[in-house]
Amino acid sequence: MDLTLPSSWEHYLKSELEQPYFQELTQFVTKEYDEYTCYPKKAEIFSAFEHCSFLNVKVVIIGQDPYHGPDQANGLCFSVKDGIKHPPSLVNIFKEIETDLGVVYPKSGNLERWADQGVLLLNATLTVRAHEPGSHQKKGWEKFTDAVISKLSEERTDLVFMLWGSFAKKKAKLIDSSKHHILTSGHPSPISANRGYWFGNKHFSTCNKILNDLGNKSIIW
């Protein structure tokens, strides 16, 4: 399998793609897709990057693993394909947007509409074996996606990073807080949200205020 990044990203991550670990990762992912059902589809592994070029990134949302059920994952964290039932975390994301911004709860859980506006929906691990959450963790993806976050921090300014839950919050160490905006809260999963760590964080209105103050367009959440 050829794990090729879109050219707008490859320019900034070329040295990473040439590292031995990335070659090993490519071999691992190729073997997994040959022998097992894996998600997302091969063509969608780098969807987050295809919908949002390096220089168009305005906001970064970090997830952990792709969904591992049939027809769910589409290469964007928290996102599902059109017509697919919304997973619990996504339901809570939409509920928070509803109360924060007064936006009507959407029919589609496909977040390509966010990505096309400059929201990088980045899972730390970009692939997974069907029905086996975490099965592709610690194979090299995390090293690669950490490099993506570091490169964005280094090369860009005034990005809004939304770090939800303890896993995402650990990525703050990769981000220069003197030149970027970091928003943190609990995870939108039911366990965290029901304990009061998610609802009311107002991340979506806060993000738009930051973007407006910088003279950038708001995100239509």
From TrEMBL:
Where is the chain membrane-spanning? Answer: none
Q: Which residues form the Uracil-DNA glycosylase-like domain?
A: 50-211
Q: Which domain of life is it from?
A: Bacteria
Q: What is the uppermost EC class here?
A: hydrolase
Cross-referenced InterPro entries: UDG_fam1, Ura-DNA_Glyclase_AS, Uracil-DNA_glycosylase-like, Uracil-DNA_glycosylase-like_sf
Q: Which Pfam families match?
A: UDG
Enzyme Commission identifier(s): 3.2.2.27
- Alphabetically, which GO biological process terms does the record hold? base-excision repair, AP site formation via deaminated base removal
Instruction: Give the chief site where it resides.
Output: cytoplasm
Where's the active site on this chain?
D65 (proton acceptor)
**Any idea which UniProt keywords this protein has?**
Cytoplasm, DNA damage, DNA repair, Hydrolase
Q: Which reaction does it catalyse?
A: Hydrolyzes single-stranded DNA or mismatched double-stranded DNA and polynucleotides, releasing free uracil
Q: Where in the cell is it found?
A: Cytoplasm
GO cellular component terms, alphabetically, are:
cytoplasm
**Which SUPFAM superfamilies would you find in this protein's record?**
Uracil-DNA glycosylase-like
> What are this entry's molecular-function GO terms?
uracil DNA N-glycosylase activity
Family per record: Belongs to the uracil-DNA glycosylase (UDG) superfamily. UNG family.
HAMAP family xref list: UDG (MF_00148)
Q: Which NCBIfam families match?
A: PRK05254.1-1 (NF003588), PRK05254.1-2 (NF003589), PRK05254.1-4 (NF003591), PRK05254.1-5 (NF003592), ung (TIGR00628)
Function, in words: Excises uracil residues from the DNA which can arise as a result of misincorporation of dUMP residues by DNA polymerase or due to deamination of cytosine.
UniProt protein name:
Uracil-DNA glycosylase
Source organism: Maribacter orientalis
* Lineage, highest ranks first: Bacteria, Pseudomonadati, Bacteroidota, Flavobacteriia, Flavobacteriales
